[in-house]
Specification:
Blueprint lengths: L44 E2 L2 E2 L27 H8 L6 E5 L3 E8 L4 E8 L5 H8 L6 E8 L2 E7 L9 E9 L2 E8 L10 H20 L2
């Protein structure tokens, strides 16, 4: 069985949902570089514009950035990771320059991978995604909200095959997002819709953050 290299972002939930036989290469699930604006700040403005803009929804009850202090490897419990991947997996932390910290869990045998990004360095929140990613997105599905936070499921033009990959961006503040996505193993492709699964998984990450905030 050939190992499939993926770069996905995702939360938790359905038993062994991601784990399948290995398959082909998928694209990166990292938030697109085009959405990065190092000049963004937490002041409610980014690049001279008031947040939100570009049609992005406002975050009515934002969370403090302090809920992200433990890092994305704390966003999922070991049991949630095992439920998703079918194996115990240790999270591997890293930082994506210009975007923020990430954590990766994977099942190398089956080619499934879970990654969570805390998008803390763009300063633009969902506005950057709406401005730069929406026009070229292969998939763009605004969601009704995840526990009261605005969210969108999407596959960027360079983000991978929509049959096996989908990302969800949740605005936890006007200038902060948390990225969650799924990348399916080959045996699941065509049998499960990653953009139907990803919002459920993003919900688990939001639950963790709200608990940390005492909400």
């Amino acid at each position: 069985m050939r190992i499939r290299s993926t770069a996905s972002v995702f939360g938790v939930g359905v038993v062994f949902l991601l784990a399948g036989c290995s398959g082909g290469e998928t694209g990166s699930a990292a938030p697109p570089k085009s959405s990065v604006d190092p000049a963004g700040s937490s002041s409610g403005r980014a690049n001279g514009q008031a947040l939100p803009y570009a049609g992005a929804p406002k975050v009515a009850e934002p969370l403090s950035s302090s809920v992200l202090s433990s890092g994305p490897c704390a966003a999922l419990t070991p049991q949630q990771v095992k439920t998703a991947l079918g194996v115990d997996a240790q999270g591997r932390s890293d930082t994506l320059p210009g975007i923020g910290p990430k954590c990766i869990w994977d099942n190398l045998e089956r080619g499934a991978k879970v990654t969570v990004y805390y998008v803390t360095e763009t300063g633009r929140g969902l506005s950057g995604l709406y401005e730069n990613t929406k026009p070229q997105a292969a998939v763009w599905k605004p969601l009704p909200g995840i526990q009261g936070f605005p969210a969108v499921a999407y596959v960027a033009s360079t983000g991978g095959d929509p049959r096996e990959f989908c990302a969800v961006s949740v605005g936890i503040a006007d200038n902060l997002t948390v990225e969650t996505a799924v990348s399916l193993g080959e045996s699941k492709i065509g049998k499960a819709d990653p953009c139907a699964i990803a919002p459920k998984e993003a919900d688990a990450v939001v639950t963790t953050l709200r608990a940390k905030a005492g909400a």
